[in-house]
Design a protein that fits this description.
250 residues; alpha/beta; TIM Barrel; 16% strand
Length: 250
């Protein structure tokens, strides 16, 4: 099913907290960044509460839940601790991601097909609480179909490999990966899943992804926080919003 509405932009503010934590101070404030993102055209705010709390902290999630007027997408690993926090805060959405302590950033997608029974049990109480549950996965049809079976409302397709290939100038391979992402999006939409995408997206590579007709939302963080050093956060978001709209012909 082709999505004909505005492509939403979720802004991930994790790395505002990374800068803050580097000095052990209270500045810069992730909530302030989220409020500015909202004023600059973001449709949602994403924040990843990692098990080691390397950037976003519990108090940040509480402040975001109380302080923004747009949906909060709570990214986390599928652990008992995170489930209890999500059920206490009741964000608009919860995106389940794979997490390894030694990784710099989220590497690859969640293996839903290989952990189907446990993830089905994990998702059930979140669904009952009215939280939209998303699976951060690759474009493998097995993972998409398993996500639908366990009761997820959304899949977020991992665009990191496409982004890496694009940055390395491997255009043929990047095009093939983009085609696979588009097929994955079509398969997910046919199963009744809402389709999002994200990871590694920049001004240079976002438009071909944004043009995939089944996508309803892109989640972008690291690039925007980095670009904010040069442009300011508001203008950086506004330019991403513009490029997404161009890709959709609006």
């Amino acid at each position: 099913m082709t999505y004909r509405g505005k492509l939403r932009l979720g802004v991930n503010i994790d790395h505002v907290a990374t800068v803050r934590n580097a000095r052990g101070s209270a500045w810069p404030d992730p909530l302030r960044a989220a409020i500015l993102a909202e004023a600059s055209g973001a449709d949602g705010i994403t924040a990843h509460l990692r098990e080691d709390r390397r950037h976003i902290r519990d108090a940040d999630m509480e402040a975001l839940r109380a302080g923004i007027g747009i949906p909060l997408n709570f990214e986390c690993a599928a652990t008992e601790e995170m489930q209890s926090i999500v059920l206490r805060l009741l964000p608009h959405a919860c995106c389940l991601v794979p997490e390894r302590r030694e990784e710099r950033t989220t590497e690859g997608g969640l293996d839903v097909a290989g952990d189907e029974a446990r993830l089905r049990a994990f998702v059930a109480p979140l669904r009952e609480a009215g939280i939209r549950v998303s699976m951060f996965i690759g474009h493998d049809p097995r993972q998409i179909e398993a996500s639908a079976r366990i009761g997820a409302a959304v899949v977020e397709l991992h665009t990191g490999h496409y982004s890496d290939l694009h940055a390395e100038g491997q255009q043929g391979e990047a095009e093939a990966e983009l085609t696979a992402l588009a097929r994955g999006a079509a398969r997910a939409a046919a199963l009744g899943l809402e389709v999002h995408a994200g990871h590694g997206l920049t001004y240079e590579n976002v438009e071909p992804v944004a043009a995939i007709p089944e996508l309803m939302e892109l989640n972008i963080g690291h690039f925007l926080i980095g670009e904010a050093i040069f442009r300011g956060l508001g203008p950086a978001i506004e330019e991403m919003r513009r490029r997404m709209d161009v890709a959709r012909g609006s």
